[in-house]
Amino acid sequence: MVGRDDQPRSLVAVRSALLLVLLGCNPVVPEDSSVDSEDTADTGGNTETGDTGPPGPVVPLAGFGTITGSCGELDDALDSSAPALLRGAIDFASKTYTVSSLTADGQEVIADGNLGGSSAESEAIAMEVLARCELATLIATETEIAYIDQGGKKTDLLVDAYSRGVGVSVTRAYHFPEGEPYTLTEAADLLQNKLGDVLLSSANAAPQSAWSRSVLSILAFDSQHADQIVSAWGSLDASVTDATIVIVTETHGADAFIY
To answer: What pTM did the predictor assign?
Structure first.
């Protein structure tokens, strides 16, 4: 007869395990186990990525006209020193334009007026797109920006976008009479002239109004006009595009007040 002390170690281990099961005990993890308690998930604590805080507003913000296309992308363009083109659209459908339908900054653009011409509404809509897509805020309108040479080139708006001062020049891509196609030559001429003016106005800004980056906001009469602007921009020399960011916004619906 084999005594307890003489039983094989494997048999003793099996009997010990069975006894633990019968008693309802949990097995003990050996001290040299490869399981590390620090590797187990702690669902009650914060992750190591940290708390990023509540999400920001979803763009585009609601307002006069439905905005589609490039939206919330200006920040990345500002981070780079390269030129960029962003394209979007705004559709007014059958809504009637009133100043009160604009954001507070858009209304201020209209109230302050400009230095001549009939571009106040286009400047206000450019401000609307920047405010609702990029959360930009108005710093100064055309009459409030200080310049070195009052007779030199000027820009239309000075805004804060992503904590950067941005000078915004506004123009329209529009062929008269309506119904005829907007040509590539017209688009190239518009870009050549306006991008050149952007560089001159930036150099002309007084220190207290100086901005770090420039935007050329182009309101295009329809998709065909916008297509030609995009095509022409792609063929421009780097000396013309420089570091300017072009925002092309094609307009739809009841947009006659812009043109």
So the answer is: 0.79
Report the mean per-residue pLDDT for the chain.
Answer: 85
How far is Cα 18 from Cα 22, in angstroms, rounded to an integer?
6
Do the strands 84-91 and 245-252 form a parallel or antiparallel pair, or are they unpaired?
Answer: parallel
Domain of residue 172 covers 66-252
Domain assignment of residue 19, yes or no: no
User: How many domains does the chain contain in total?
Assistant: 1
Residue 145 lies in a domain: yes
- For 119-146, what is each residue's pLDDT tens digit? 899 999 999 999 999 999 999 999 999 9
- Domain CATH number, residue 146: 3.40.1350
What are the tokens at 251? 């307009």
For residue 208, being part of any structural domain is answered with yes
Q: Per-residue confidence at 30, pLDDT binned at 50, 70, 90?
A: very low
d(CA 185, CA 181): 11
The pairs formed by 105-109 with CB atoms below 8 angstroms and a separation of 24 or more are 105/131, 105/137, 105/138, 106/131, 108/138, 108/141, 109/138, 109/141, 109/157
